[in-house]
């Protein structure tokens, strides 16, 4: 594994992708202060990037504000053309971008390739949504009057993005903001700046004007402070932990910004005894182990009806035994390292807690030999509701399987969580599927499928999983204001 990521990065055609320069007001800033980027699989340094300061952020906000009027006033079709050429450049460079994602984030290369295509899809989607940001005409409640509702760009937007989808979480936010007519400033996670900066190179090549799209990397608190306090920043979009989401919501209160938050998951995955077991196991594998488990949609509480509990655990353990743990750049790898040591430590703490409280732990333990950020795929059976893993998000390849008896009981247990992002239901009963699609308290439900995301769907959560929606026809509204206009005195 040693030097694998460094070798791949050295072989990139696009040397500028690893230059590590921030992108402010149309200029590439190398800076005196640099932060290192490491390969999470080995801990080796693979690049360094400019560390931006709060005053750099002030410059970026001013540049964004200057660019706003001209960008807003372009025809939506012209903004769409630029977004589409950005998407097309991303696809042309998909292999290089995927290597960057795997090198700094750790996910298997095949998944990184998929992320680039998925991420480019949001730019295409919003290119068209910008052209369809229709207003309304309201039947008037006043004589001789005409009532209109218009949608208008809100102003400068900011995005604070996570490390688990370092490309797609940028394009999902930026596509919507830019299509709406808003400039956007992106602060990516310090663990994964390279892919963000490479995407910015392509944004420039696609023709995004100066100041309209900027990327600043550096200390999260130092860089988010100006974004929060500056009245010129009108919208803030964040993806990450609920804990940081709360802080940002509080910080944004002072200037009453429009805030959208995509926060933690803790998804229930319900398997009823009328299902085809193999399909349910395949679904659970997909829902648990994508992105090595570091996914807010990851199945965190797999509830299996008691009659098939033993058979499910056996088949699930057999499927898990096939997973290969390794460096994301090795073609055989299914599970890469955790991007952050803190995530690996949390997984291990949840395993220890479950073991101490009587869970059955099944793991091949092949990961631990590879390095501190690796977590072996681990199945925890006989999990109870009091265990940590049943109460909080894992964000790693640890699968908790809990028995249940009745539909009523499992819905109640599902809904006790303060998280409400996604849920999965496997059942052969149409009536039950319809009932559960109504009764589960969350923003997204997959019925007999673990694969439901993409640009057309409204991605977002209920309760403490977030505010607002990304993607779909709703995503653009996070960056637009409604304006009601009443034309009165129209009688001839
Ligand atoms: P985090 O919330 O700390 O990081 C996400 C983003 O917030 C990064 O850009 C980070 O630099 C920034 N950030 C961190 N602290 C900040 C602060 N005080 N002010 C402003 N910005 C700040 O997440 P984490 O600690 O890296 O991961 C911890 C847990 O968060 C994970 O285990 C997982 O449960 C959750 N998470 C969820 C998602 C998601 O897709 N919803 C993504 C990443 C992490």
Task: Describe how the helices and strands are arranged.
Blueprint: H1 4-10, E1 22-24, E2 27-29, E3 34-38, E4 45-50, H2 54-73, H3 76-92, H4 94-105, H5 109-131, E5 136-138, E6 146-153, E7 156-160, H6 168-180, E8 184-187, H7 193-206, E9 213-215, H8 220-229, E10 233-239, H9 242-253, E11 258-262, E12 267-271, H10 277-289, E13 299-305, H11 306-320, H12 341-356, E14 360-363, E15 378-381, H13 388-391, E16 398-404, H14 407-415, E17 419-420, E18 422-426, H15 430-439, E19 444-447, E20 462-463, E21 466-467, E22 480-487
Parallel strand pairs: 7-8, 7-10, 8-9, 10-11, 12-13, 12-18, 13-16, 15-16, 18-19
Antiparallel strand pairs: 1-2, 3-4, 5-6, 6-22, 11-21, 14-15, 17-20
Helix pairs in contact: 1-4, 2-8, 3-5, 3-6, 3-7, 4-5, 4-7, 5-6, 10-11
The structure holds nicotinamide-adenine-dinucleotide (NAD).
């Amino acid at each position: 594994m040693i030097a694998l990521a460094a070798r791949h990065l050295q072989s990139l055609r696009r040397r500028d992708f690893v230059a590590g320069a921030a992108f402010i007001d149309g200029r590439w800033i190398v800076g005196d202060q640099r932060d290192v980027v490491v390969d999470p699989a080995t801990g080796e340094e693979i690049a360094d990037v400019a560390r931006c300061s709060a005053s750099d952020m002030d410059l970026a906000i001013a540049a964004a504000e200057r660019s706003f009027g001209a960008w807003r006033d372009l025809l939506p079709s012209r903004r769409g053309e630029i977004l589409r050429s950005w998407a097309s450049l991303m696809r042309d460079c998909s292999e290089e971008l995927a290597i960057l994602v795997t090198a700094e984030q750790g996910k298997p290369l095949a998944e990184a390739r998929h992320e680039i295509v998925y991420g480019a899809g949001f730019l295409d989607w919003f290119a068209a949504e910008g052209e369809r940001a229709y207003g309304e005409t309201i039947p008037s409640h006043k004589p001789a009057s005409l009532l209109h509702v218009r949608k208008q760009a809100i102003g400068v937007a900011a995005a604070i993005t996570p490390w688990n989808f370092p490309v797609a979480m940028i394009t999902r936010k930026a596509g919507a903001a830019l299509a709406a007519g808003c400039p956007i400033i992106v602060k990516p996670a310090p663990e994964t700046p390279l892919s963000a900066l490479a995407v910015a190179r392509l944004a420039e090549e696609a023709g995004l004007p100066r100041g309209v799209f900027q990327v600043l990397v550096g200390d999260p608190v130092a860089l988010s402070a100006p974004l929060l306090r500056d009245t010129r920043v009108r919208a803030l979009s964040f993806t990450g932990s609920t804990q940081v989401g709360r802080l940002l919501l509080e910080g944004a209160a002072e200037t009453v910004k429009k805030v959208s938050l995509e926060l933690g998951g803790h998804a229930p995955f319900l398997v009823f005894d009328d299902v085809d077991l193999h399909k349910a196991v395949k679904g659970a594998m997909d829902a648990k182990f994508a992105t090595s488990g570091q996914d807010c949609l990851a199945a965190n509480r797999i509830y299996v009806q008691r009659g098939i509990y033993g058979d499910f655990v056996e088949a699930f353990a057999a499927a898990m035994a096939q997973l290969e743990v390794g460096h994301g750049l090795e073609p055989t790898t299914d599970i890469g390292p955790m991007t952050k040591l803190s995530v690996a430590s949390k997984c291990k703490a949840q395993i220890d807690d479950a073991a101490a409280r009587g869970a059955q732990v099944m793991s091949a333990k092949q990961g631990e030999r590879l390095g501190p950020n690796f977590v072996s795929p681990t199945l925890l059976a006989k999990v109870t509701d009091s265990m940590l893993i049943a109460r909080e998000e894992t964000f790693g390849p640890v699968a908790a399987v809990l028995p249940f008896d009745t539909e009523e009981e499992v819905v109640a247990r599902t809904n006790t969580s303060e998280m409400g992002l996604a849920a999965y239901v496997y059942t052969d009963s149409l009536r039950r599927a319809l009932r559960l699609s109504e009764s589960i308290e969350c923003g997204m439900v997959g019925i007999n499928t673990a694969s439901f995301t993409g640009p057309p769907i409204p991605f977002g959560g209920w309760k403490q999983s977030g505010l607002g929606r990304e993607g779909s026809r709703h995503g653009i509204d996070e960056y637009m204001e409604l304006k009601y206009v009443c034309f009165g005195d129209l009688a001839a």
